[in-house]
Amino acid sequence: MSALTVLASDEFGAPTPDELFNLPPIIPGVDWFTKPVLLAMLSAILVIGLCWGAFANPKIVPGRLQNVMEYGYMFVRDQVARPFLGKDADRWMGLLLTLFFLVFIWNIMGVIPIAQFPVASHIAFPAVLAGSIYVLKVYLGMKHQGPVGYFKNLMFPPGLPKPIYLLLSPIEFLSNLIIAPFTHAVRLFANMFAGHMLLAFFSMVGFWFLFEKLTPLGAGVGVIGVVMTIVFTAFEMFIQFLQAFLFAMLASMYIGGSLHPDH
Amino acid sequence: MSEQERRPENDGRDFADAMWSIPSYLLAGMAVYGGIGWLLDRWLGMSAFFPIGIILGLVLAGYLAYRKFSR
Amino acid sequence: MSVLAEVSGNVTAIGYGLAAIGPGIGVGIIFGQGVQAIARQPEAYGLIRQNMLLGFVLTEALALLGLVAPFIFAQL
User: Where is the chain membrane-spanning (chain A) (predicted)?
Assistant: First the structure.
């Protein structure tokens, strides 16, 4: 990986992906138990706890937690589920709501002070989610349209001249069954990865030029670094919300596409 | 949705559908025809078919996406 | 001559970064103007949508062409 080297009074090394994302195990000897795994587990418990606390015995006059969670539920139902699933929306709300909250809390871990690591910036986590959505998509498609009908609807969109299908069917096949789940996972992963790198870089600039090597010339750069860190933290919070929303939205789009054959 | 009525929400839905699918169509087109071109290049020992395949794939995938989503 | 600043690593990454600027601006213009056009004339929605789609396909194709350009030029 390339490293941008800025020569100030001494060497300033930008943080490399290896030192940012290749974390040592928390308990020595247990190799799989690293920080992202711990955060993923905590987030899952948090989502279960929030939903349990809010929806286990709902009141007519909602309390504080129930109020907030109902707001989230309404958001997911109106913006994610209903536009793509129509009247089937309520059946799939369980999946979509957990998906949205889980990804959102995974992402927001990147700016929570002590955690400070977006779980989705390890590609394994979004890949597993996207993979399970992909399996669900193919299963539902085969169940609702028949195994042959599913592939027929998938690969031969109506309304094109006959001979051109020979050229276009491979594109349809590859795009729907291989590229789509891949981009589904990579979009979330890449945004979180790049965002974490960006935050680490700017806070490193601020720390280095203001605390480690304080020089009259370097102080200005350090101040810019601190200001950029604050600005990009706000921007990152927006991106984290947006990516969680998009992940749930694409999942609902794939499910909707399998339930109803092409219009 | 077969019996769906043309409402603004549904139009927006279709539009979002198209916008999210287009990049994967273009990538798939490049992968299929670029891949065929690359294989032809390896087979014939040339280097012209790979770029040609990439461009052809882009054009075909763009045509497919345009025809499929603009009605 | 002493080195003041240097860039090491894969130059094609920088190339793609530069190549993505243009399509980025282009997609922004297409959707910005498209939404504005729909807001001004909602009854022309179908036509505007069709042209937005065409513009988006062509611009996105340029962005993806930038992605494979390093592979093409590595071969030549």
Answer: 37-56, 92-117, 123-142, 163-182, 188-210, 217-235
Looking at chain A, which subunits does it touch, using at least 3 CB pairs closer than 8 Å as the criterion? B, C
Its ipTM equals 0.80
* Chain A residues whose C-beta sits inside 8 Å of any chain C C-beta: 1-7
Angstrom distance (rounded) from CA B69 to CA B64 = 8
Please provide residue A4's backbone torsions phi and psi, each rounded to the nearest 5 degrees.
Answer: -85, 120
Domain residues for the domain of C45 are 19-75
Residues A205-214, mean pLDDT to the nearest whole number? 84
- Burial annotation C8-45 (CB, 10 A radius, 16+ → b, else e): eeeeeeeebeebeeebeebbeebeeebeebeeeeeeee
Total of domains in chain B: 1
CA angle at A102 for the pair A96 and A105, rounded to the nearest 5°: 135
pTM of the shown model: 0.85
Phi and psi based region of residue B44 (left: phi greater than 0; alpha: psi -120 to 50; beta: remaining): alpha
Domain span including residue B37: 22-69
